[in-house]
Structures are given as C-alpha cells and as structure tokens.
Amino acid sequence: MKLAENPKASEALVTMLVLRLRPRAQEVDGAGGDGGRDLLEYTESGELINYEAKSFTGRMTSGRRQQVVGSLISTARHQPDHWDLLVPISPNPNELAWFAGLRREFPFVRDWRGLNWLNQQFAAHQDLIRYALQESGDYILDRIAEARAERDTLLRGIPDLAARYRALHMRAQEISPGYAIRTVLGPDGETAIHLLPKADNTQGTRPIRFTGRVSFRRNEPQDEQRREQFEEAIRFGGEVELAAANLEELTVDAPSELGISGSFPLESLKIAAHREALSPAMRGQLMIRTPAGGPTASLPVEFTQRVTGFDGGSLFGQDITGFIRIQMRYDRRREAWSQTLSFAPPETSLPQEMVPVLRFISRAVPGQSMELTIHGPTVTQLTAPITQTAVPDSWNADEAETWADAFDYLATLQRMTGQFFATPPGYTLKDARDARNAVSLLRGEKVDMPNTVVAVGVDRIESLEQVSRGKLAFAAKYQAMVVTFGEHQIDLGPGIELMTIDKVLNMREARQALADEGHATVRLKLDRTQPAQRYLGTDLPSPGTQP
Fold first, then answer.
1. Which site from 183, 271, 347, 354 is most exposed, i.e. has the minimal number of CB atoms within 10 Å?
2. Which residues contact 123 (CB under 8 A, 6 or more apart)?
C-alpha cells in the first residue's frame, strides 16, 4: 500500500473508507487532541465504537506500541464499548500476543484492522484510491468534509434526521460528567438548551452559578409586576421572564467542559423553578369544618409535584377524582401556609364522581375552616380559615349544592337499575327532577304529575258524553314507563297513571269531529285539588278509590 508512505494521506484515506463503510460513523476534530479516537460511531443499539487510524508501516516498534497505549488511555475516558485499531501493518504472532494482552487492561479493545483487511476494502472502492493517488492529502481532507456535508443534507429524509439527532444527542451527553443536556425548539424557532443534573453522578454535581444585578423602575406597573414575580420565583420557586432593561451584565460560573462561563449581556432572562415529581405521591385528606369544629365535607387528595425556593415552596396536586386542582404554598420563615383550589370539571364523567366534589365546594365558604392532613411517617395537620368561596364566580350561592343533588339523583337511579353511563351533555335541572321521580317510583312511591291538561282519543259518542258529566276519575295503563337522558333510555317497567277530570275544554269541536270522522281528540283540564299521579305496577285501583 504505497499511500502508507504519506502519513497524512494514509490516515485521511482510512477515514474516508470508514465513513463509507459505516454510515453512522463521524470524524473527530483533532484540534487540541482527538481523545484517542479518529472516528466514533453510535450503533443502532446505542453502543459507542471508537476508531483509531495510524499510518505506521513496517513493524509495531516499542515506541509505536507506547503511542497505541497512550491512545487507549485517552479513549478510555469516553467509556467506549469497542475500540478498533486501523493500521497498514499485518501483525506477526508477537504483535498479536501484545495486542491481545491489551484487553486485560482495556476490555473494550476489539480488532486490529491491518494491511490485508485495508487492501481488501480498498479493492472494492477503487475511486478512493484514485483520489488518494492523484491528489494531495489536503484534497482528501476536503473530500471528507464534502462527504460529511453530503450526509448532512439528509438525503434519506426523516430516518437520516433521526439518526443524526440521536448521534449528536449521545455525543452531547459526553460533554459533562455532571450534567445531562436536552435541546428543544422555542416558539420562535430559537434553540433552548436545558442542563439537568445526571441522576447517576455519584461524585456530586458542581453547581452553575449566576452573578449579576437586576433592577426595576418604580411607578412602572409592568416593572412592578415583574419585581413581584421575581421575588416570588426566588423565595418560593416560581417563574418569571426579565427584559433587557431589568438586566445588567451577567457572569456565569459553570464547569469548564460546558463552555458557558464568562460575562456577557443578555436580551432576556427566564427563571423557572424545576418541578420535582414526587414519587410516591404525597397523600392526604382535605376536611371542611364548621366554626364549632364539626366536619361537613372531605376529599382525599394527593400531591404529585413540588417546587422550592429560599423561603419555602409549593406543592401541586389534585383530589382523587382529578376535578379539583390544588396548590399549597408554604412559608418556612413565617411558619405559614395557604392553599388555592380551582374547579375544572371534565367533559365526560359518571354522575357519582361529581357528587362529592360539588358537595365539597358548596360548603367551602368563608366562615368555615379548611383542614389538611398529610399522611406519611408522621401525620402533619394544618388548619386555616377559608377566605374565599370555591364556587365558580358565575354560579349562585346555592347552585353547587343544587347540582350536587341533581347528579346524586341520576347516580342513584343508575345504581338502582344497574345501567351506568356518563352524564349526558346538556343535563338540566328538569332532567334531575325526572331522575328524582324515577327513583321514587322504583321505591314503590306514587309521584305527582305536573300536568294540568291532557289529551285523550274518543271513538264513541257515549264515551264523550260520559267524559262531559262533571268530574270523572280514570286510570291509564302503560306497558312500560321510560325516562330519557340524552341518548340513554331507562325502562322502569309497567305503570299506571291516575287522573281526575275537571272539565272538557273542546267539547263542541270534539262532537263535530266525532260526527264527521268517527274519531275525536278531547282536551281535558285536570282537577287541581286532586293532582294526577303515577306509580309502577299493573294493579288498577279499586272502584271508588280516590287517586
């Protein structure tokens, strides 16, 4: 292999060969040292392979062996899964024994790719040889750059993008032993880099420190609001974005490998406390008590996230149904706490899920007190007066309790009939009355009907004459009484309706229709002193029995 006589061209040619054979491989910039690798590759399974190309010819002398060991010491810092040596030397038995011995100290040592292997590969890629023979080593390096640029055009589309992003992401994790790196695109296309402490860093993470000054203009509403948000973020762990006018030069002191230390001006600065996930969740119970101390409503709760600041922090969670969001603020300095509840009902839910939540917020009114009990190794109990109602602003004072009853009626009806379905969209208080009446019927009770006028069909003149003779009580028998809620119907079974007639409202028209057509619809006004009733069953009342 004549190219071995030109070390620069030889190593560049081997680099070109590996880039062609291994599409995932990437050249390492050797400025300041290549770290014991000329190329690296992350395989599909996530393994890291480092390649070291040497232009040695002849034999592997002791000096050259020492260079290889030095490269292995450098590459060990990257913790590769495999390391291959690419050198135009066919090893003799003594050299093979030396290379095998390296694995005892460096277990990741894998293959010696020597002269025969290289000649075999170049025989299959004659164009690379032509470039190397006809052009200088610098030209070959330019060709390597072109090859990299060609791959950067993402000729295969999304698969290329995914592969390159994964490779770059994995390389980024090698930058710092203490911090993991995450990148996201902001709403305006800007790149945001998140630095997070690595969970497996057992030696401790050196903190990143920011030093600088912030200022806020007095009597400027926007700046006053930013100042309050800034103090909130620092004291209790919140979020604030400061404009350039609020910022003076900022100094960053960070681990050197991150390359972000120094002083520089900022256009804006966003401070956001990290929301720590609580695993397992912190469980507890919310209780509303009357001024006399009696319990009136309660809900189980769990806190799943936490943020902290210098003076305290906040716990974030929800009740067991997920309908009520809870933020609890605690102030260690003042030994005080406060709690904010927000009601966010879902689009669909079973009616029985809504009842305890609505009962709770209907009773969470000023004058009562809120008690929070947090369970754990020790039980913590906090109590504070309720200063603001939890009922939504658009609701009347008693509306939450009214709706709690409305959902309770439908939940009870579903439980009694064994037919369960989500509360229909547009469920109204009239639907709730229908559900309440259906429950009463199922319990064997008679239910008053709100009707004041009914219409019946008459086919005989004798029947019409009988209806017109003063007050008349009659019963209507149904094979099935059905109540409807949205798309759902519940069959309550056969039933009876009892009515007492006060008078006929359209006697003249009914007589004429009966004479002309042999059939008439008679409109009857019911007696208000004896409301119409219905009940379930098939037994008619005895003659003469008052409804």
1. 347
2. none
Q: What is the pTM of this model?
A: 0.55
pLDDT at 136: 47
Q: Which residue has the tokens 């948000």?
A: 229
Determine contact, residues 343/324, Cβ cutoff 8 Å.
Answer: yes
CA gap 524, 502 in Å, rounded: 7
Distance CA 375, CA 283 (A): 6
Residue holding tokens 């993991």? 180
In the predicted structure, residue 423 carries a pLDDT above the cut 60:
yes
Q: What are the tens digits of pLDDT across the range 14-38?
A: 888 888 888 888 887 654 445 567 8
Per-position b or e across 337-358, b if 16+ CB within 10 A of its CB: bebebebebeeebbbbbbbbbb
Q: What percent of the chain has pLDDT over 90?
A: 28
Long-range CB pairs of 517-523 (<8 Å, 24+ gap) are 518/459, 519/457, 519/458, 519/459, 520/457, 520/458, 520/464, 521/455, 521/456, 521/457, 521/458, 522/455, 522/456, 522/457, 522/458, 522/464, 522/467, 523/453, 523/454, 523/455
Which DSSP state fits 28? Answer: P
Main-chain phi, psi angles of 226, to 5 degrees: -65, -40
* 151 within 8 A of 24, measured Cβ to Cβ: no
Assign residue 79 a region (left: φ > 0; alpha: ψ between -120 and 50; beta: otherwise): left
Per residue in 208-238, pLDDT (tens digit) is 888 888 888 888 888 899 899 999 888 888 8
Q: Cα separations (Å) of 172 from 32, 39, 164, 209?
A: 18, 16, 12, 21
Q: Is the peptide bond before 377 cis (omega within 30 degrees of 0)?
A: no
pLDDT higher than threshold 60 for residue 321: yes
Return the SS3 of 375: coil
**Phi (first) and psi of residue 363, to 5 degrees:** -105, -5
Alpha carbons 210 and 127: distance in angstroms, whole number? 54
Instruction: Evaluate whether 238 touches 329 at the Cβ level (below 8 Å).
Output: no
77-113 b/e (C-beta count within 10 Å ≥ 16 → b): ebebebbbbbbbbebeeebeeebeebeeeeebbeebb
DSSP assignment of 400-459 equals HHHHHHHHHHHHHHHHHHT---PPPTT--HHHHHHHHHHHHHHTT--EE---SEEEEEE-
Q: Which amino acid is it at 449? A: M
Quote the mean pLDDT of the chain: 83
Residue with tokens 């439908």: 410
**Integer angstrom CA distances of residue 450 from 149, 176, 440, 483:** 82, 77, 15, 15
DSSP 29-77: P-TT--SS-SEEEE-TT--EEEEEE----S---HHHHHHHHHHHHHHHT
Q: Quick one: tokens of 307? A: 């943020």
At residue 32, the pLDDT reads 40
Distance CA 251, CA 253 (A): 7
pLDDT for residue 6 is more than 70: no
Are 474 and 544 contacting, i.e. CB atoms less than 8 angstroms apart? no
C-alpha closest to that of 481 among 442, 536, 519:
536
Please give the full DSSP string across 142-153, using - where no structure is assigned.
Answer: HHHHHHHHHHHT
Q: Any bridge partners for residue 447, and if so which?
A: 534
Q: Decide: 540 and 477 in contact? Cβ < 8 Å.
A: yes
